[in-house]
Amino acid sequence: MKTVLLSGVPQSLRTDAWWMDGAPAPQRAGRAREGWQLRCGLLVVLLALGDWLVWQAVPGLSLAVFALALVAAAVAMWRRRVWVLGIGAVAALPLVEVVNPLTVMIAVMGVSGALVLLVGVPRADLWRAALRLWPFGIAQGVVDAGAAFEARGADPAEVRIRRALLGWLMPLGLSGVFALLLIDANPVLLDWLSGLDRLRLPDGVRVMFWAALVPLIWTVLNAPRLRERLIARRRAPRMGPAREGLINPVSIARALVLFNALFAVQTLSDGVFLYAGIGLPEGMNHAEYAHRGAYPLVITALLAGLFGVLSGPWVQARPVLRALLIVFVVQNVGLVLSALFRLDLYVDAYGLTRLRVAAAIWMGLVAGGLALMLWQIVARRGTGWLMGRVAVMAAGVLYAVAFLNTDGLIARHNLAQDRSQSAVYLCRLGEAVIPFIAREPALCPYRPVEVKAPRDWREWGFRNHRTRRSLAAVMQTQAAP
């Protein structure tokens, strides 16, 4: 009886949503149809909203609005966990500052996290579910599309309509796409069609943009239906001290003795040449010494951290190995701090660049991760404890960096230190350096001193707004008698 009552709704589209909770079977059938129609209606609305906000507009505030609209639509659709809207707003906030690959990545991660929290995924499965959401959601959308046309209704008229759609949708749809692309590629035909005032056809690229948005929006609207697939996992065999191989108590003990000895030599060398002020060999200055060692030391610290994670299960139960590992990690923290000091010396000599700013942030992250590892060893915490906190720390740092005006920081530092040799580099940076160039017109004589304003609110960005205000203040100061 239930199959007949719900026959108008494909099996893959049925769900125990709020509109079906506690309802008798006949009402559940009607509400299932209503839920299906609601999802389709929201799909059309969000597709139109995405086209209006994003299409043919320079990415700006519109992306933040669209990201928040997706989360709001999912919350409205499923009527649960309204507080995840706050997560969506926090994730979209960096896009208000500026649109770049980092802020887009933060927005995607934030929307994914909001959706898996809306689903009710257990805390231990959040990261796995967020990574699975989009591929699983897009695949489910394809299944839903096929199921919608395969469903058999009790009404003969509905059956005829489904058969007609099934027979014509693919030929007409692909023919329309091919026609748009061919018209766009044929100047004569395109010119002829452009003369028809009443015929306004979307171009092929716009149709492909719609086609790309549809599965993403459908995934957002159907996220709760994916819960079981998002949290499903195989139980991997537990790796532990019972399985001895290249990593075993004897090899770890010998490795830690050798590693500590090698790192002690490097620490002593840095103490002599960098901190004690003892002269370097002839032909080498402190800036060159710092530059040669900064990046290799960070790579060394990363490998040492990986060794610490792999050796952790063997070390916890052996006090001597724990003591050796603690000394090793402490030396690595000192090594990273030495790399930061080297980088500071090199920046003092040659100025800031984007790569050097990124290196400083990365070194700080590595030092923080090693400090957490040290606490993990002392407090006898598990590897999962360490990985979770390192992930939270890295996410927090990346979120803060999204609001950092790197180009402005570089220009301010280099010009304050009178790094004339970095003038060519400054001239190649983004619009954030324009106010600094305006103060010294001779710095970049061939670069226009202007910052483009957004054409409308969709392209507005807070960093661009601040840069235009700074430039206006500089120009006003220079124009004053």
What does the model show?
- It is a single chain.
- By secondary structure, the protein is mostly helical.
- It has 3 domains: 2-231, no CATH class; 262-404; 407-479, no CATH class.
- The protein contains 19 helices and no strands.
- It is flat, with a radius of gyration of 30 Å.
- Mean pLDDT is 76; it is low at 1-16 and 236-242.
**In terms of structural class, how would the helical and strand content be classed?**
mainly alpha
Radius of gyration over all CA atoms, rounded: 30 Å
Instruction: Determine the number of helices (DSSP H or I, runs of at least 4 residues).
Output: 19
Which range best describes the helical content: under 10%, 10-25%, 25-40%, 40-55%, 55-70% or over 70%?
over 70%
**Overall tally of domains:** 3
- Beta-strand residue fraction: under 5%
**Low-pLDDT windows of residues:** 1-16, 236-242
Major sheet description: none
Distance between the termini: 89 Å
Q: Residue-averaged pLDDT, rounded? A: 76
Overall morphology: flat
**What are the secondary-structure elements, in order, as H or E?**
HHHHHHHHHHHHHHHHHHH
In total, the number of strands is 0
Transmembrane segments: 61-78, 98-121, 165-185, 205-224, 293-311, 323-343, 355-374, 386-404
Keywords: Membrane, Transmembrane, Transmembrane helix
Protein name: DUF4173 domain-containing protein
Organism: Sulfitobacter albidus
